[in-house]
Amino acid sequence: MKKYRMNKNTLNNPNGNNEVHEETCHYFNTMNSFEELGYHANCQSAVLEAKRKGYPKADGCKICSLACHRG
Ligand SMILES: [Zn+2]
Description:
By secondary structure, the protein is an alpha+beta fold. Helices cover 14% and strands 30% of the residues. The radius of gyration is 10 Å and the shape is globular. Zinc ion binds next to loops.
């Protein structure tokens, strides 16, 4: 299981998406405003959790969660 966080700040994303990062990502500890998503087996599960928390534009980071990156 890996720990995931979602960036609440969408200003740096060209599509206004809330990027989801795993704990090994270089961005994980650099976010000023984030939502804790807890531990997940994969990024699909983490993105689903972010959407469940009310962020329909949650999307995997293209560096750490490429399999979940849509745009
Ligand atoms: Zn990342």
